[in-house]
Amino acid sequence: MQKNTFYNTFSRRGSVLLEMIVVIGVIGVIAGTIGGIFYANQRGSEIGRQATLETSLAQEAIEALKVIAVANDGTSQGWNRIYCPPDQVEPDEGGDCATAGAKGTATDYRVEAVGNIWKLFKGSEAVSLSSETYTRAINIENVCRSDTDNSITGVTPCGGGSSEDPLTQKLTVKITPPNGAQFTSATYIARALNKQSSPATAPATQSDWSGGEVGDTPTCATVTTSFGTTYCADDNNADVTGTAGSIKILLQ
């Protein structure tokens, strides 16, 4: 009887030990699964946050380049700073940019706000966000268009049946995060303003208002504008009437 009691006790102890091992194994599997889900959620959140920052940095640069492209002044027209980066002028507009500037995927540029005005500079830049440092670089490339349907076929050098379009440029913004793969965003920008004869006439020209009525010899005193054009000076006998902020032509 004593032998059987010892055997039963030993058997029960073995069963309890086996059950504990099974429970520990189950807990380990559950903990591993929960840990994996938690890590995946955390990693997904981090990737999403980083992607949002990268997109914002790229979009900011593209919008700044669009502003630069139309920011004409007395020194140069904005498009020159994109076509002949970072700050040159085409020969037919009074400059010495004989070629389309130093461009391509191997030449980086950056945008900076100087006195509330966006300007283009050579070289990439380091941007600090959320205690992290991102590198932002801009590449500018000349664009080729089809000689038949004017569609974009790629970037220079142009292949057969296509030619460079100096009124279109390809802009690529590259964002390198502190961790992970590089993010790129590309777009095309076209010149919306016509060329002027020189930077001094940018951003607009003015027609000549002198000459009086058609066929008549002008008798009015003229005023010369900063554009070199003229208009009749006020003779204090304007045939108009109206209230402040409006004007109305009187019938004769």
Task: Give a description of the structure.
The chain has two helices and eleven strands. The chain is of the alpha+beta class and 252 residues long. It has two domains: 42-193, no CATH class; 206-252, no CATH class. The strands form four sheets. Strands 3, 4, 5, 6 and 7 form a five-stranded antiparallel β-sheet that branches. The protein starts with a helix and ends with a strand. The model is unreliable at 200-206 and 209-216 (pLDDT under 50).
Observed structural traits:
5-stranded antiparallel β-sheet; 2 helices; two-stranded antiparallel sheet; alpha+beta; 2 domains; 252 residues; single chain
The counted number of beta strands is 11
Q: Count of helical segments?
A: 2
Shape: elongated
> Major β-sheet, in short?
5 strands, antiparallel
Number of domains: 2
Proportion in helices: 25-40%
Mean pLDDT figure: 76
User: How many angstroms separate the termini?
Assistant: 139 Å
Elements, N to C (H/E)? HHEEEEEEEEEEE
Low-confidence stretches: 200-206, 209-216
Please indicate the percent range of residues in DSSP E strands (runs of 2 or more): 25-35%
